[in-house]
TrEMBL record:
Family matches, as InterPro entries: P-loop_NTPase
Protein name: DEAD/DEAH box helicase domain-containing protein
Organism the protein comes from: Rhizopogon vinicolor AM-OR11-026
Length: 108
């Protein structure tokens, strides 16, 4: 797999590149991303009893499209949901590994 190198100066530039990558992935799905995001949102309502935020849907879509994804946000902002949402719509086995002890050390 070819590694891409980025030299960005700001978070806004990084976000822009991420969304360009997501748009390219969407182009390859022949417009099915609307249906995918609707399915993710519906499953989130049914299973979690709340609406997913747009960035959570985009991140889950990125995972399902095979893109690498990093989410930077504060505690309690909802970072775990995008990692879980793909399992709502895929029947494949999914393994999620969380290094909780490492996370706790960072929080102290």
């Amino acid at each position: 797999m070819k590694r891409l190198r980025f030299s960005c100066q700001s978070h806004a530039e990084e976000k822009n590149i991420s969304y360009q990558n997501l748009e390219r992935a969407r182009y390859r799905t022949d417009g099915q991303f609307d249906t995918l995001q609707q399915a993710l949102q519906q499953q989130c309502r049914e299973r979690c009893h709340h609406e997913a935020r747009e960035w959570q849907l985009d991140a889950a879509e990125a995972f399902l499209s095979g893109l690498d994804c990093t989410i930077l946000a504060g505690t309690g902002f909802g970072k775990s949901l995008p990692f879980t949402m793909p399992s709502f719509v895929k029947t494949d086995d999914v393994l999620i590994v969380l290094a909780l002890l490492n996370s706790q050390e960072d929080q102290v």
